[in-house]
Amino acid sequence: MTMPYKTLIFIPTYNEVENVRVIYEQIKKLNLDADILFCDDHSPDGTGGVIDEICVQDQQVFAIHRQGKLGIGTAHVRGIDWAYAQGYQQLITMDCDFSHSPFYIKKFIELAEAGDVIIGSRYIQEDSLKEWNFYRKFLTHLGHFLTKVLLKMPYDATGAFRLYRLDKIPQGIFHLPHSKGYSFFFESLYILMLNGLTIKEFSIHLPARTYGHSKMTLKGAYQSLLHLLQMYCTTLFRRHEFIYMGLTSEQTVKS
Ligand SMILES: Nc1nc2c(ncn2[C@@H]2O[C@H](COP(=O)(O)OP(=O)(O)O)[C@@H](O)[C@H]2O)c(=O)[nH]1
Ligand SMILES: [Mg+2]
């Protein structure tokens, strides 16, 4: 597939040894002219070693290894910064567990002109989450409800399956979120929305992960909820904290 923009696919990993090679192989089968970056947090199951083997075989695959589990949010910021530093124009971010099917990557690329941020959404179709258990569905729908009501975001704001047009988004915007964990997704999207970037969605089906288990803990969900409430208070009293002030005169973020 010909790509009008220099493209990177970013995948954070923590204990994904059963998934990482298979996801790499499935992405390669798409025949895209895109590079892949993994960010592994010293996974005890040896995921980092498998990633290094892939990097040796394939010059289009890169790895960041961090000292320990520093959180999914900081992993995304690290990947985003790396993408800007290497001059990528668009970045697709996804999980390693096949809940984000590589099948949709082409769809993201086709829609790249439609917005500055493209989101694979679980809420457009009724049965997008039909394989998930009750507890997980409940948490996911609660997150969606609260981000819709409190932050007035009509999007799937808690998922990581996104395309960012880095050529249209100032890098500094991604340094405004404070979240280290899962709340990074709604915090970053809120900041992007408030700063006038265009957000478009398309419907995805999200199967439950095939191998391994979710790293989202009850503590993580609780921390995200607290963060959301904190953000809600900030929107009421100190909204300017979400506004990006670093634009040069040539940059034109719509307001
Ligand atoms: N580097 C890194 N990756 C993480 C961390 N936590 C989760 N991940 C990865 O982020 C993706 C989403 O995590 P997952 O456990 O599937 O969360 P869920 O989809 O919300 O259940 C997966 O690819 C995980 O391996 C972390 O602290 N650091
Ligand atoms: Mg997952």
What is the element layout, followed by pairings?
Layout: E1 7-13, H1 20-29, E2 34-40, H2 47-57, E3 61-65, H3 72-85, E4 90-93, H4 105-110, E5 117-121, H5 134-150, E6 162-165, H6 184-194, E7 199-203, H7 218-237
Parallel strand pairs: 1-2, 1-4, 2-3, 5-7
Antiparallel strand pairs: 4-6, 5-6
Helix pairs in contact: 5-7
This protein binds guanosine-5'-diphosphate and magnesium ion.
Magnesium ion (MG) binds at residues 95, 97, 99, 209, 214.
How would you sum up this structure, described in words?
The protein has a seven-stranded mixed β-sheet with strand order 3-2-1-4-6-5-7, sandwiched between helices. Helix 1 links the parallel strand 1 (7-13) and strand 2 (34-40). The protein is of the alpha/beta class and 255 residues long. The longest helix is centred in the last third of the chain and has 20 residues, at 218-237. The two termini are 34 Å apart. The protein has seven helices and seven strands, in the order E-H-E-H-E-H-E-H-E-H-E-H-E-H. The protein is globular and about 50 Å long. The chain has one domain: Spore Coat Polysaccharide Biosynthesis Protein SpsA, Chain A, CATH 3.90.550.10. Bound molecules: guanosine-5'-diphosphate and magnesium ion (MG). Guanosine-5'-diphosphate (GDP) is lined by residues 12-14, 16, 39-41, 69-72, 75, 95-97, 99, 209, 214-216.
